[in-house]
Amino acid sequence: MAKAILYGADYSVYVRIARMALEEKAIGYELVPLDIFAAEGIPAWYLEHHPFGRIPAFEHDDFRLFETGATARYVDEAFDGPALQPADARGRARMNQIIGMLDAYGYRAMVWDVAVERLEKATPDENLIAGGLSQAQTVLKMLTSLKAKGPWLLGDQLTLADLHAAPIIAYFVKVAEGRNLLARFADIQEWYARVAGRPSFVRTEKVA
Ligand SMILES: N[C@@H](CCC(=O)N[C@@H](CS)C(=O)NCC(=O)O)C(=O)O
């Protein structure tokens, strides 16, 4: 079977989500380095993989994908290994709801508006951070109420929802405001400690 190829960088939250899915399925893959923020811009060849200029992009044999959610679902369905999606309609819907919520409301607020703003700006925009924290609070509140009983977000089965949430929260807790807010949601904090112990999480940690 052809090798899976992922284009991206180890600093990227979305690249890490796709890598965690590949790791959980124990699929050998190649990470082709692509720095989306490089000073010289995005190479023209890459825009053929991802016309919107984001990372990651994925390739398997002659099959190309962009969009991390689609990539992770493909990885789960096209390869052997433990199923990363619930078999039942409601479990699958809940998983997709959590992923959709994180994409639409979690990623920008938690990663960009709070963590990147605090870590990388010489003069952080405090209003942006406050707005991001407010939205992050709603995301964490909803994760708490949507989480099933058991070790993982969907209960006993580790799913793509866990793999989507972990890298976003990992970025959020790089800053004190993120850690302090997470500490107010004990179930999610415990879940995060658990998922952060998985080899798929540890192996995809950004090399300093
Ligand atoms: N909807 C995309 C989002 C990917 C995304 O936003 N990736 C970030 C890195 S984590 C990126 O490429 N950012 C570049 C930019 O915003 O210009 C997906 O699901 O793959």
Helix and strand topology:
Blueprint: E1 4-8, H1 13-24, E2 29-33, H2 44-47, E3 57-60, E4 63-66, H3 68-78, H4 89-120, H5 126-146, H6 160-172, H7 176-182, H8 186-195, H9 199-202
Parallel strand pairs: 1-2
Antiparallel strand pairs: 1-3, 3-4
Helix pairs in contact: 1-3, 1-6, 4-5, 4-6, 5-7
The structure holds glutathione.
Description of the structure:
By secondary structure, the protein is an alpha+beta fold. It has 2 domains: 4-78, 3-Layer(aba) Sandwich (Glutaredoxin); 89-203, Glutathione S-transferase Yfyf (Class Pi), Chain A, domain 2. Helices cover 55% and strands 9% of the residues. It contains 9 helices and 4 strands. It has helices at 13-24, 44-47, 68-78, 89-120, 126-146, 160-172, 176-182, 186-195, 199-202; strands at 4-8, 29-33, 57-60, 63-66. Strands 2-1-3-4 form a 4-stranded mixed sheet, with helices on one face. β1 (4-8), α1 (13-24) and β2 form a beta-alpha-beta unit. α1 (13-24) packs parallel to α3 (68-78), α4 (89-120) packs parallel to α6 (160-172) and α5 runs parallel beside α7. The longest helix has 32 residues, at 89-120. The protein is globular, with a radius of gyration of 17 Å. The structure holds glutathione (GSH). Residues 12-14, 36, 54-55, 67-69 line the site of glutathione. Glutathione is lined by residues 12-14, 36, 54-55, 67-69.
